[in-house]
Amino acid sequence: MTASPKSFTAACVQMRAGRDVAANVAAAAALVSEAAAQGADFVLTPEMTSLLETKSDDLFAHTRPEEEDEALPVFRALAAERKIWLLIGSLPVKLAERKLANRSFLISPEGAVTARYDKIHMFDVDLAGGESYRESKNFEPGREAVIADLPWGRLGLSVCYDLRFPQLYRTLAQAGADFLTVPAAFTRQTGAAHWHTLLKARAIETGCFVFAPAQGGRHECGRETYGHSLVIAPWGEIIAEADHDEPGIVLAEIDTTRIGEARQRVPSLGHDRGFSLPVKAPARQAS
Predict the structure, then answer these.
(1) Alpha helix locations (H) across the chain?
(2) Which residue of 41, 60, 241, 286 could cross-link 3, Cys pair, CB 3.0 to 4.6 Å?
(3) Looking at the predicted structure, is the pLDDT value of residue 227 above 60?
(4) Which of 94, 98, 107, 100 is nearest to 28 (CA)?
(5) What's the average model confidence in pLDDT over 127-136?
(6) What's the pLDDT tens digit per position in 192-203?
């Protein structure tokens, strides 16, 4: 379909990436093509589209610098072939011998990479039941927020654990973002508790559409992710959801006039006020 300046069709791809890069890329490409065939103008894939691996040695063994990465050229060619905007949620990109970037790529319908974003906030967490993650062991955190232009407005990029840091999204919205991307591999445990609530909050706080393509299910490496890919409107309504953790796609019609309507109803982006930090009380002396 041909997108108008005020509306377009977005599609979130839900995956269950494993340890085989070629198989993951093929699975993602098939779902992206399916979304394009159903009329999507903008398609988004999850975090770690090409590889989901928890063992450091295996992760580094299958990762290359961006210019040598085997997945990115496939997705660039696919975007050009299908004439779509394509957000690859993230690929692991080698920066040094033992350090990677968790990097998101925005690709134009001409197959050009128009924006890159390296995940800023690292998932270093110990969860109940013995689940433990140290993303910073293998990944270098990004240092720059990124906004990119789409035909329908401006896009603010983020990845997964960034979702828990609302200041990033407020900054993006105040810098002109109309849409926010949150490609993710949320754990099943944290996803069941917080995924919907946090994504709705980010939409409401910013008056932005939020696109959240996700990994879902039990992966080859043993990790379990939550799925439930979502598209959320600026007033906080869920307008598309994969209500499961299976691979597939969800599509949503995006009416960009809803952004201005939501922000007019509650113009909080323009109501910031300065304030001082609380003074830390002195420690009590033992009696």
Answers:
(1) 21-37, 56-61, 71-82, 166-174, 188-190, 196-206, 257-265
(2) 41
(3) yes
(4) 107
(5) 81
(6) 999 999 999 999
Cα–Cα distance for residue pair 143/120, rounded to 1 Å = 6
* Residue 225 identity: T
Distances in Å between the Cα of 12 and the Cα atoms of 112, 184, 204, 250, 281 are 20, 11, 20, 5, 48
Nearest CA to 207 out of 229, 228, 176 is that of: 176
E strand intervals along 97-247: 99-107, 113-118, 124-126, 132-134, 147-150, 153-157, 179-181, 209-212, 216-218, 224-226, 230-232, 238-241
Mean pLDDT of 248-262: 98
Q: Which residues are catalytically annotated?
A: 47, 119, 160
Tokens, residue 227: 């799925």
Q: Which residues contact 130 (CB under 8 A, 6 or more apart)?
A: none
d(CA 103, CA 122): 12
Strands 179-181 and 209-212: parallel
Of 98, 102, 134, 132, which is closest to residue 116 (Cα–Cα)?
A: 102
Predicted TM-score (pTM) of this structure: 0.94
Query: Do you know the residue count of the chain?
Result: 287
Cα radius of gyration (the chain): 19
